[in-house]
Amino acid sequence: MKFLLVFDFDHTIIDENSDTWIVKCAPERKLPNGLRNSYQPGHWTEYMGRVFVYLGDNGVKEDEMKRTMTTIPFTAGMTDLLGFIGENKELFDCIIVSDSNTVFIDWILKAADFHKVFDEVFTNPAAFSSTGYLTVQHFHAHHCAKCPKNLCKRKVLKEFLDKQLERGVSYTQVVYIGDGGNDLCPVIFLKKNDVAMPRQGYTLEKKISQLAQSLSPVQCSVLVWSSAIDIMSYLKLLIKE
């Protein structure tokens, strides 16, 4: 009896988008229009690369970025939920699949002492260069037409489950917790016994209900949450069974 919990990060674990929060470090806490307008759909990672160059050019250092990032609020109830998972690690494997980056997620989880709750974090690799600039790379290459160029979350989930099976680990149920459009691809991949938990009022919930309306609903069960306490209530029921 082991369950796999898959979390998105931005607007799921934290109540903000980590990539847009970093703009608080910029001069006057905003980006120049030219830079802001340079984003092209599906190429967010490249856009963030340019944002990090701008911050570096303006003398924003690692410690200032770290201080800013660790002020991001967690989503309502999330600290209770992560505490509960931490106390029941023998029942839950827990991973993050996120379009943020390794540096931001690491800072935020370690500052709140939640890094031990997660077995693995799959996100865009980031590091500070010798000149003190933050650089970010694509997580992987893939052939999925539905997903942004740098990350297909379904591919990550499938590869993780395959690798676990090779190690002799199979899960009673996969619970996928997310909010965004890029969470739909892995949710469609989930099986009948699995559960998708989209955040209420966010893109993922809307996309799942559009699929149901067009009579091609997802195979898994769907449970909507607005506070992470809703997720915790579900997990408590699971382990009672």
TrEMBL record:
Substrate binds at residues 19, 99. The keyword Magnesium applies. The active site is at 8 (nucleophile), 10 (proton donor). One of its GO terms (molecular function) is phosphatase activity. Its cofactor is Mg(2+). Keywords: Hydrolase, Magnesium, Metal-binding. Mg(2+) binds at residues 8, 10, 179. Belongs to the HAD-like hydrolase superfamily. PHOSPHO family. This is PHOP2 phosphatase. It comes from Sterrhoptilus dennistouni.
